[in-house]
Amino acid sequence: PMFQRLYVWQQIPQWATLWEDLIEKAELRLANKKSNPHYLGALIVEGVKPKSANEVTRMLVIDGQQRLTTLQLLLAAFRDFARTQGWLALERKANRYIENPDPDTMENPEEEIFKVWPTQLNRAIFSEVVTAGSREAVEIAYPLVRLKYRRKPEPRSNLVEAYLFFYQQIEDWTHGDEDDAGEARAFALLQAIQNDFCVVEISLSEGDD
Question: Measured between alpha carbons, how far is 190 from 44 in angstroms, rounded to an integer?
Fold first, then answer.
């Protein structure tokens, strides 16, 4: 909804903390050890009355936009890295959490294709990052700009930085100590995302305050 704020999460503390929680679960999976699901908090959503029978079921995110947007960027980074490695099964599995299937049957495919849309002012950048297809394409679209007499480059959108942060972390972690174990580590990472995190969903009805 329009009242949602811009995407403001940053590496410290949010992205780094999420990544630490994620690899902890993935390491337990690689070691065949049991673990309890990690709680990501409550999501508050409100259903939207469909305009046509072909429209994908929609919900407004009242609370949880930052978390959901971050997870989408993480999954996009995972998908794109898996593509570069030729791990096509992992690429397809990750993409199922980013895009809705069968765009040819949708009422408005350009909008309904994504599982999650952030707030309006972030949508153009979010779409460009998620559809770029690779880290290199994102970096070309959003290069670091260094102004004269300034020690640090100009800040980029947090959406761009989140994608690049997670891409680098995934690349570093999946390579690990054994070159031939990368796909197994990536599979454990995706399983952790799929199965080792949980939320409480609070679904509002029409008229709820």
Answer: 25
